[in-house]
Design a protein that fits this description.
Distance between the termini: 140 Å
Order of helices and strands: HHEHHEHHHEHEHEHHEHEHEH
Radius of gyration: 32 Å
Mean pLDDT: 76
Largest sheet: 8 strands, mixed
Strand order of the largest sheet: 2-1-3-4-5-7-6-8
Helix content: 25-40%
């Protein structure tokens, strides 16, 4: 015990004296944490980079649309030739677009069209998508990660097939990632021209999941033509499904469908809006939703009916001549 007491074992230690009070904090001289001047975003794993991109997305997705319309007063081809300008985009210009010039599809042609919301979303200095677009311009990896996220809920509406191709030439950085496209007017052109235009469209919009076309009427008399659809429209359906990743085509009915103005005159119900969809888009928009109705079109069967009707008409003409 005496030896333990000599070593101080078992004895209580005296309390420490109180610390002096801290001086008041001066915010001007207070130390602050400074991060690295250049943060290497690419060192993060892809799933974390996607989280960063999502934080930069605007909360209001209802503004994610662009509309391209023709301006009034440019519908006449004669006026366009007289002024030395093209009122409509030409197929040769789309197949071989000029680069680095003021011609098509440069700024000089912008005055022929109304482009709604394009400036506010993409090109305005304080555009809502400007931070994400700037990130997408950094390298191919960020472009491949950012643009599908931006265009996921994006809608592009155009009034003509040729204008859709023109816009794709004018915005090559943006349009390949678009998944939803709507052509709001009837396509007036021969089948062989339609295929050339559609070839350019599908090349420039390779990731379409929902492609909607208005003006595809179904009010032809079956007794006379064998089908309610025009043969060129049926051939267009076959061409699109053969050259795109879209899987189904059908008539769509939704709140935006105004119907056909000739229904009352012809006495035939006509729903002039069709849509091409992928399997995922069909499940999202129609199978698991009550907002729209999708009725499949068996275009191959309709083409056979049309061809058989033509054969019957030809045989009747031969009998009359004989």
């Amino acid at each position: 015990m005496a030896a333990a007491d000599a070593r101080g074992i078992g004895q209580s230690t005296p309390p420490l004296p109180p610390l002096p009070p801290l001086p008041p904090l001066d915010k001007r001289t207070a130390p602050t944490y400074k991060g690295p001047e250049n943060f290497d975003l690419m060192r993060l794993p892809p799933e974390l980079r996607l989280k960063v991109y999502e934080q930069l997305l605007p909360t209001d997705r209802s503004t994610f649309f662009v509309e391209v319309h023709r301006r009034p007063g440019t519908a006449s081809n004669f006026r366009a030739r007289k002024s030395g300008r093209q009122a409509w985009p030409q197929l040769a210009d789309v197949e071989r677009p000029a680069k680095g010039s003021s011609g098509f599809p440069g700024k000089g042609d912008m005055e022929w069209f109304w482009i709604v919301n394009d400036w506010a979303l993409l090109r305005k200095p304080d555009a809502v998508l400007k931070p994400l677009v700037n990130l997408a311009k950094a390298c191919r990896t960020t472009h491949a990660e950012v643009m599908p996220l931006v265009c996921k809920d994006f809608l592009l509406e155009v009034t003509d097939l040729s204008i859709a191709c023109w816009y794709a030439c004018a915005r090559p950085f943006f349009t390949p990632s678009i998944t939803t496209l709507h052509i709001t007017a009837e396509i007036y052109m021969r089948h062989y021209l339609r295929e050339r235009w559609l070839t350019q469209l599908l090349l420039r919009f390779p990731n379409l999941e929902y492609f909607k076309i208005s003006g595809v009427h179904s009010h032809k008399r079956i007794s006379q033509y064998g089908t309610r659809y025009m043969k060129d429209d049926l051939l267009m359906m076959r061409f699109i499904l053969s050259n795109a990743k879209l899987e189904r085509v059908g008539t769509v009915f939704d709140d935006s469908d105004d119907g056909c103005e000739d229904d009352g005159l012809l006495g035939i119900d006509c729903s002039p809006t069709i849509a091409f969809v992928t399997g995922n888009a069909f499940e999202k928009l129609f199978q698991n939703s009550t907002e729209g109705v999708f009725a499949d079109i068996d275009f191959e069967a309709e083409l056979k009916k049309s061809e058989s009707c033509v054969m019957v008409e030809k045989s009747k003409k031969r009998k009359r001549r004989s």
